[in-house]
Amino acid sequence: MCKRPAAMDPARALVATVADWTSLVDKRLVVETTLGRNRALVSRMNATVKELNDRNAELEEKLNYNEWTA
After folding, report:
1. Coiled-coil ranges per the record (predicted)?
2. Which uninterrupted H or E stretch holds 49?
């Protein structure tokens, strides 16, 4: 038959609970910080892709213009 675990001292139980919550809050802050950093990176990458697409369109226009004028 299984033994019942000994009752934990209320003060120790409170400390354990606070430690668990503190750990969860710390993890949440890490995740939020990482998410913010990733969103900023995606925003910069999207801007770079747009610039590259615009530049490609300009070059394609020049190429097409040069083909017809040559």
Report:
1. 42-69
2. helix 10-69
Encoding tokens for residue 55?
Answer: 């530049």
14-69 tens-digit pLDDT:
899 999 999 999 999 999 999 999 999 999 999 999 999 999 999 999 998 777 77
The number of domains in the chain is 1
Nearest to 46 by CA among 38, 57, 58, 35: 38
pTM above 0.70, yes or no: no
Is residue 49 in some structural domain? yes
Q: Quickly tell me which residue has 């609970």 as its tokens.
A: 17
What are phi and psi for residue 13, nearest 5 degrees?
-65, -40
